[in-house]
């Protein structure tokens, strides 16, 4: 399967993240799955006209593209001209290149939240008129339109995240190469369900603090970051705390809030990212699937039941009280 | 006279186009175009100043932490606070990890692959270079990627993930380090040190750091077989292709200074012009940006605190989205070479006195930094005091003008912040490649890469001249940072 990867209105961070793959031989892994990297901006040998010749042949359908991976938002501005990104050496807007390639591609993948929804590049008043391949924020459409289907019959596969976890990308590519990822394996927003049917909250190392609503109050505190620090881990679709980043990491274990970077529109939350918006002292954004009245009742109860250890450790940057040692056996 | 338009350049971060005017088989003049504009400075205006910490790392997926560090420094400057000793060490470790990982990516993935191209078949080093560095297929790709990923596990521990962390805060780090973490950090760093000593240098880092003259480097080289290590192989190639004669720019070098611990820096801040005995202080007030050749509303050169970013795609005679930063109106180069020259490392000074800033010296300086920075990282880890604070708390003032100056892998990175009524009134960013790949200013003076390309001989049938690619990549450009 031929893979073509292009970057536009983004930071290249999804590629950089992918290269952090825990695979001992990432390129060998792709090769062994039958994936041939026809062109990737960070990896390939060809530059300039050599590269443009390959891309033109793909755009004309002369070379088949099985996996079209687009990283970065589609920049339609200024005034619909696409001139905020003309692909170097070609004089043509990247939006045109992507549309031409997507007409022939067997599978089209948006790598990262910029390519999926517009993402960070669409922040504020969206100065470049950025959008995703098949979405503009959470509204279907984007560059290719709501009705776009690649040659395989699938919509754009939105491997959303800012950045994407290396496995989200490699396992999606491998799933397609091994014919084990199909339309039904995507969620309602086109994200692969193997990571998007989870919540960042699952497996969060701060879960005991969450249980007791023992909350962090300032950067470096160990407590749960939902109540004050803007954490959206209980709503964000991703498996970041069960599929560690860079060996052992995740945002919440790294000391900071989940900003819900896999979700459309995460770039404009309507409040400072690291400050929880509240109504009458209660966070507006409650955990997914949780009725508000129950949340309020449980929070009040659990706060009153918080052990001293959990209460004190929540507002320290290292555990100041260790768990009591109890004898094993029947208790 | 003929014209050659080159692009896209891969194995640089982001998109790049270079237009060459060629006369008599040589480049008469070059124009560098950064073809992607995203508008971060416009996006940041009006936001809560703390939100800069979410947006700026996403300027760049390869200099992500550097951008965070610059924003944290600018906010810190506005808040008037200082991180605790642990916080300085944690932040320096995170920044050093990114910077060294970027040097590593540059050497193994971006730069060396060009010497494995068929055009060099028949050179005495070609077989070794091809086996090791061929793009995608060479042994280095399979060997270096896992080493890079393992090294970046330091980020999993200290920053949650890489790229795009929020652990760097104005007051230090939001991720405290325990005694157990210190041991893991030491182990991860040790693994990387061993890899570098085995593959990259074939020697102890301390031996490399102690090379103190061109003669010492010659002696080191002469005592080892060409394919005994990747660095040795590079020196072989550099000699044969005379890379020291390729890619010279203005020979004015600047560095913001790097890695502050206990109010001292590992690499000093300053400016150094070839020919001077000592580096001089770098006065941030003497930095301006000139929009003359950029698709930006025209203005006289402005200090970044007064800087403006107003795209104008129809501006006549403009040819890039990149503004032109200047130091006292002069063209300056930044990067690992500049950092080491300003800091006065004797090997780099000696090499520069003989041949200035060029492709070979830029690469040697980058590799030298592994040998100088890793021992410092080991020291910072030892000095961390678990249980002591990692983050000073503070409040953001309603009115402030501040700046954050750091060193990314690629060189001097500055953020200039103006806060009015508690919101960001202006946010201006000058990234390393903004300096290095800047266009002509109002006086018509070309930027560093444009100068470095002038005069290069171009073969008649070369579609994408390799010498041009070596020069371009020798700066380790980051195009997504350049314009942002």
From TrEMBL, chain A:
<keyword id="KW-0408">Iron</keyword>
<feature type="binding site">
    <location>
        <position position="258"/>
    </location>
    <ligand>
        <name>[3Fe-4S] cluster</name>
    </ligand>
</feature>
<feature type="binding site">
    <location>
        <position position="114"/>
    </location>
    <ligand>
        <name>[4Fe-4S] cluster 1</name>
    </ligand>
</feature>
<dbReference type="InterPro" id="IPR027394">
    <property type="entry name" value="Cytochrome-c3_hydrogenase_C"/>
</dbReference>
<feature type="binding site">
    <location>
        <position position="162"/>
    </location>
    <ligand>
        <name>[4Fe-4S] cluster 1</name>
    </ligand>
</feature>
<keyword id="KW-0732">Signal</keyword>
<dbReference type="InterPro" id="IPR037148">
    <property type="entry name" value="NiFe-Hase_small_C_sf"/>
</dbReference>
<feature type="binding site">
    <location>
        <position position="240"/>
    </location>
    <ligand>
        <name>[3Fe-4S] cluster</name>
    </ligand>
</feature>
<protein>
    <recommendedName>
        <fullName>hydrogenase (acceptor)</fullName>
        <ecNumber>1.12.99.6</ecNumber>
    </recommendedName>
</protein>
<feature type="binding site">
    <location>
        <position position="204"/>
    </location>
    <ligand>
        <name>[4Fe-4S] cluster 2</name>
    </ligand>
</feature>
<dbReference type="GO" id="GO:0051539">
    <property type="term" value="F:4 iron, 4 sulfur cluster binding"/>
</dbReference>
<feature type="binding site">
    <location>
        <position position="11"/>
    </location>
    <ligand>
        <name>[4Fe-4S] cluster 1</name>
    </ligand>
</feature>
<feature type="domain" description="NADH:ubiquinone oxidoreductase-like 20kDa subunit">
    <location>
        <begin position="11"/>
        <end position="174"/>
    </location>
</feature>
<dbReference type="GO" id="GO:0033748">
    <property type="term" value="F:hydrogenase (acceptor) activity"/>
</dbReference>
<dbReference type="InterPro" id="IPR001821">
    <property type="entry name" value="NiFe_hydrogenase_ssu"/>
</dbReference>
<dbReference type="Pfam" id="PF01058">
    <property type="entry name" value="Oxidored_q6"/>
</dbReference>
<comment type="subunit">
    <text>Heterodimer of a large and a small subunit.</text>
</comment>
<keyword id="KW-0479">Metal-binding</keyword>
<feature type="domain" description="Cytochrome-c3 hydrogenase C-terminal">
    <location>
        <begin position="198"/>
        <end position="273"/>
    </location>
</feature>
<comment type="similarity">
    <text>Belongs to the [NiFe]/[NiFeSe] hydrogenase small subunit family.</text>
</comment>
<dbReference type="GO" id="GO:0009375">
    <property type="term" value="C:ferredoxin hydrogenase complex"/>
</dbReference>
<feature type="binding site">
    <location>
        <position position="14"/>
    </location>
    <ligand>
        <name>[4Fe-4S] cluster 1</name>
    </ligand>
</feature>
Automatic annotation (TrEMBL), chain B:
<feature type="binding site">
    <location>
        <position position="484"/>
    </location>
    <ligand>
        <name>Mg(2+)</name>
    </ligand>
</feature>
<keyword id="KW-0479">Metal-binding</keyword>
<dbReference type="InterPro" id="IPR050867">
    <property type="entry name" value="NiFe/NiFeSe_hydrgnase_LSU"/>
</dbReference>
<feature type="binding site">
    <location>
        <position position="63"/>
    </location>
    <ligand>
        <name>Fe cation</name>
    </ligand>
</feature>
<dbReference type="InterPro" id="IPR018194">
    <property type="entry name" value="Ni-dep_hyd_lsu_Ni_BS"/>
</dbReference>
<keyword id="KW-0533">Nickel</keyword>
<feature type="binding site">
    <location>
        <position position="478"/>
    </location>
    <ligand>
        <name>Ni(2+)</name>
    </ligand>
</feature>
<dbReference type="GO" id="GO:0030313">
    <property type="term" value="C:cell envelope"/>
</dbReference>
<keyword id="KW-0460">Magnesium</keyword>
<dbReference type="Pfam" id="PF00374">
    <property type="entry name" value="NiFeSe_Hases"/>
</dbReference>
<dbReference type="GO" id="GO:0016151">
    <property type="term" value="F:nickel cation binding"/>
</dbReference>
<feature type="binding site">
    <location>
        <position position="41"/>
    </location>
    <ligand>
        <name>Mg(2+)</name>
    </ligand>
</feature>
<keyword id="KW-0408">Iron</keyword>
<dbReference type="InterPro" id="IPR029014">
    <property type="entry name" value="NiFe-Hase_large"/>
</dbReference>
<keyword id="KW-0560">Oxidoreductase</keyword>
<dbReference type="InterPro" id="IPR001501">
    <property type="entry name" value="Ni-dep_hyd_lsu"/>
</dbReference>
<feature type="binding site">
    <location>
        <position position="481"/>
    </location>
    <ligand>
        <name>Fe cation</name>
    </ligand>
</feature>
<dbReference type="GO" id="GO:0008901">
    <property type="term" value="F:ferredoxin hydrogenase activity"/>
</dbReference>
<comment type="similarity">
    <text>Belongs to the [NiFe]/[NiFeSe] hydrogenase large subunit family.</text>
</comment>
<feature type="binding site">
    <location>
        <position position="63"/>
    </location>
    <ligand>
        <name>Ni(2+)</name>
    </ligand>
</feature>
<feature type="binding site">
    <location>
        <position position="60"/>
    </location>
    <ligand>
        <name>Ni(2+)</name>
    </ligand>
</feature>
<feature type="binding site">
    <location>
        <position position="429"/>
    </location>
    <ligand>
        <name>Mg(2+)</name>
    </ligand>
</feature>
